[in-house]
Design a protein that fits this description.
single chain; about 300 residues; mainly alpha; Ribonucleotide Reductase, subunit A; 11 helices; globular
Length: about 300
């Protein structure tokens, strides 16, 4: 008799959980219209249609805010690659496939409304943005054929990280319209996080050792999907320096809330594999906390030096 692959067994056992959470999601998700968040009356033609070419002076947000807005939008732009990756992991059948397509549809409107807002308000350079979009989508996104449990863990952290990045970017712009838009996008990201978070919870009950190993691997190796964006490292450094998204936020507001929700360090009954993974996770978190503190100290010192020169 042929042995059923572990991923197939898990998908069969989790089908009920997926359906339950899909129905919960559909019950709480509120319909919203991207066009209602864009100040269309501010729009005007660019140079090729007899209007003005973009100029930095036309933007009402700071250069750092522009950088964060561009990174957020370019990350959303790579949706075709994300869809491919999640469909590869979840398939097209049953509740799994229904979720994949619903998630993709909801994610699709994020890029639509953010781009419309940025172009209408002339917040960013449209030429630079389009060139970066082309480069980002040509690079695509490859998860490296993550195992199913690793996908659950990664998207849980990633959706929460994206939610926080959008919310903090909106606040940083000091533009009420932009903050309202990104807060609405962040609400979608939060609902997506809840779906994946609950899959991890169920998987900890079904395969605790394997799920613990996956959680540790994804925390230790975590990288935002926007890492393929041109000059991402430099832009991420600027965003971190501004306090929009940095190591402290990642440690305190992304990793730990999920670990506490899953009761990772209270979980009993782990085998050797799970205990080893949990020990590795504990050591990594301590090191990350130290890194975050050092970054905060360096940033505070730089700010003090800058203030002293004024």
């Amino acid at each position: 008799m042929a042995t059923v692959p572990e991923s197939t067994r898990l998908m069969l056992e989790l089908e009920g959980t997926v359906e339950e959470n899909l129905n919960r999601h559909l019950g709480v998700a509120k319909e919203w219209m991207p066009h209602e968040y864009v100040p269309w009356d501010e729009g005007r033609n660019f140079a090729d249609l007899g209007g003005e070419a973009w100029d930095p002076e036309q933007s009402r947000v700071s250069p750092i805010a522009r950088t964060s807005l561009e990174v957020n939008l370019l990350t959303e732009d790579n949706l075709p690659s994300y869809h491919r990756e999640i469909e590869r992991a979840f398939g097209r059948d049953g509740a799994w496939g229904t979720w994949v397509h619903r998630w993709t549809a909801e994610e699709g409107r994020h890029g639509i409304c953010i781009r419309d807002y940025l172009l209408v308000t002339r917040a960013v350079d449209p030429v630079e943005l389009e060139r970066a979009r082309m480069q980002t989508m040509e690079a695509g996104y490859d998860s490296g054929d993550k195992a199913l449990l690793n996908v659950f863990a990664y998207v849980s952290f990633q959706e929460l990280a994206t939610r926080i990045s959008h919310r903090n970017t909106g606040k940083y712009t000091q533009d009420p319209l932009c903050e309202k838009l990104l807060a609405r996008v962040a609400m979608d990201e939060n609902l997506h996080m809840l779906f994946y978070r609950n899959l991890v919870q169920a998987s900890l009950e079904l395969s605790p050792d394997a799920m613990m190993r996956a959680i540790t691997d994804e925390v230790v190796q975590f990288q935002m999907p926007g890492a393929v964006i041109p000059s991402f490292v430099r832009k991420a450094a600027l965003i971190a320096k501004a306090g929009i998204y940095d190591l402290r936020i990642h440690h305190d507001e992304v990793i730990w809330p999920l670990l506490r929700q899953w009761k990772i360090f209270e979980l009993e009954g782990l085998g050797e594999v799970g205990e080893k993974a949990r020990d590795e996770l504990d050591q990594f978190l301590k090191a990350l906390d130290t890194q975050a503190s050092r970054f905060e100290e360096r940033r505070a010192a730089a700010e003090a030096r800058s203030a002293a020169r004024k």
